[in-house]
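Loading example: each entry is read as two labelled lines plus one structure line.
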Amino acid sequence: ETGVTQSPTHLIKTRGQQVTLRCSSQSGHNTVSWYQQALGQGPQFIFQYYREEENGRGNFPPRFSGLQFPNYSSELNVNALELDDSALYLCASSPDVQDYGYTFGSGTRLTVV
Amino acid sequence: AQRVTQPEKLLSVFKGAPVELKCNYSYSGSPELFWYVQYSRQRLQLLLRHISRESIKGFTADLNKGETSFHLKKPFAQEEDSAMYYCALRGYSSASKIIFGSGTRLSIRP
């Protein structure tokens, strides 16, 4: 057990809807990053949170937003879902921003129809 | 542009043969380079990083700044090495963002 859990494991949504994905990190992991992995591609950086503040963002539109909570849990919210948002969403945590040893969750598979 | 390129989607070698997974990068500055691995039904995990210069599970990777490459090598492949391998980089000035390549699936034939 790596200590990073994501829920749900699978999700089907309709275009235009909103979705919230959840991640529970290990205690003491103040940094959480979210990645989108499309089929056949490597993970793409969405954003990172450190101590509940956004600490960096990739090339994703504002309809992708996040929250990090004091209890080491976090959320990824996506509004106005598009078909291209269908992907595996990964959460990764580490004790600090400079740490390279990210612990990844097993992901949430989102399908937009 | 910051980019990591893994030219091979699939690499198939026989058990005992040498393995080389290619990785080239584009980054204006001094990046940190990593290899991540994902075994079947397991999570993505860090295999090694260039700064540590260590050998993990018999794998090594040397950063060649002149050729902007960070190829992963192992002299004798084992069946348990079959997995998906991702090369990745992180800039020292933007420590939050890790850029991944598209991955190479390594298949070891018995």
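Residues 36 and 45 of chain B are 5 Å apart (CA to CA).
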